[in-house]
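Feature request disguised as a bug: please show the residue count (373) next to aspartate-semialdehyde dehydrogenase in the output. Example input:
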Amino acid sequence: MQLANRRCLQARASGTCRRVSRARVAVVKAVKTADGPRVAVVGVTGAVGQEFLTVLKERNFPYSNMKLLASARSAGQKQEFEGHTYTVEELTENSFKDVDIALFSAGGSISKKFGPIAVKDGAIVVDNSSAFRMTEGVPLVIPEVNPEAMSHIKVGKGGAIIANPNCSTIIALMAVTPLHRVATVKRMCVSTYQAASGAGAAAMEELRQQTRDVLDGKPAQPKIFPLQYAFNLFSHNSGMDVELGYNEEEMKLVKETRKIWNFESVRITATCVRVPVMRAHAESINLEFEKDISEAEALEALAAFPGVSIINDRQNNRFPTPLDATTKDNVFVGRVRRDISRDDKKGLDLFVCGDQIKKGAALNAVQIAELLL
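Example output, currently without the count:
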């Protein structure tokens, strides 16, 4: 073990560890190459579509041809990528005849319509919407967590759809999975504090404008959300099941976790809240395990897990914040502590932050694409 790791492990007993690790998921080292896959980005003008391009560049993803697709309204726009100027093309039923990998982030209705068309033309669709997440036979993948779910899918072996999980699910499971592997999670209670980025570029701009207006003494003008967003928080704006009292975002955490872990018996409850943060979600997570697990064991498992960074400095009250995670690849974990409401040693609390646009969407999708090569 490296010296820095040893010192950090020794410091955990006193709660002074502040370790920021690097993601260890393999990065493909190439850029534009004649034998690379032909890639299409669907919904390229949106917040996640733009982040797709950023991540593809950061990770030197290999490609032989790049096609940028969007609605008719955005067609004709110019887009710079890797020193080349591309013209955004209108998404049509003929867009995928020369595509190997299609990264989709254009909404569920677009995915449902065009995803099967792309598959029929031989493309592998990595879809960021909720359209196919719970579809039988469609892998729902976090590469660090369950890459085996898509091991049968490769470029050149026919079309397929792979679903990107919901952002809050990805961020939660990056932190909880290493602990689940040590002591098996029986029950998970999650409260999320979700940023504007989860609702797209227009919501981010609404937060900016409302903040200016309120500080200038003007009334806020809600457009994307039904309530004032600046200096406020409210229940997540997804559809509500009136009978159960849970919204769609909360139920995604429940259903997607069970599918990703292939563990139907885990009990999950969630409360999802929209907070006036620009990007990067935060989550407070309480866990009940089947076995005893200590704080030291939990921190050691988290430190060894790819894509996780630890900020857990009790002496200085320094723990993860959305700003720590903003634009970062890793998910940040801290406030790892025993659940003192329990008489046994089978409960832990933790606080997690992750960039919704990055690991919660674009980065996870590109990591999936890397596994296809």
